[in-house]
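Practice problem: predict the structure.
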Amino acid sequence: MTEAVSADKALNRALWAVMNERFTDAAAEDMWSRPEPAWGLFAVPEQDLGVLGDVDGLDVLELACGTAYFSAWLSRLGARAVAVDLSHEQLVTARRMQAQVGPVFPLLQADGEQVPLPSGRFDLVVSEHGAAQWCDPERWLPEAARLLRPGGRLVFLTNSLVSALCVPAEEGVAGDRLLRGQREAYRVRWPGGGVEFHPSHGDWVRLLTAAGFVITAMHEVYAPPDADDHAFYEIVSKSWSTQWPAEELWVASRP
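Answer:
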């Protein structure tokens, strides 16, 4: 790992310590207590998107899990989940939620680009606003492929490319003007802290294919009509997200 990469990861780790202290720790009990899986800033129900399929009995790895609520949802559906995150603070919250709400499953502090688990261990790798945004796609996609069994699937959610092009550098939600070039959005270092990756659609196709995946779907996710603005993530507003997709949900398989 180069010095620059190490510095980026330290920056992101520090950012998520602050985010957990201010926001995600307080939101964790509500997220863990939700009865059904949902995706993204506007909690679009999994039953409306249908990307996960039946997870009962599957070995599932969640990359960049945050407070691990998604793994909790999948565990209740019968999956054997393992949740991985770089942030010690968020995993502390996840352990508290396991004790307070349940269920209990393995939590591992590790980098999504280099997971200390055996190859071919999982049937499904999933990440909701985690690895795709905060890890280098040239590193985490091959790692996800390594961890999957033949026939396994990768499902991940990330911010839409158009939102990445329209979010101001300093603060605030996406507007109706392009504020950065598409190539510039591939790797963005925000002035307030944090390094994110927002590849173009062509980049995602190239990178997934190079890692050995076959792309089976990409859903553009809009805010439902009855949605509200997110309580603390200033990325896109509900009104913006009824006109343009807030997020992209990719599905790929490992032959």
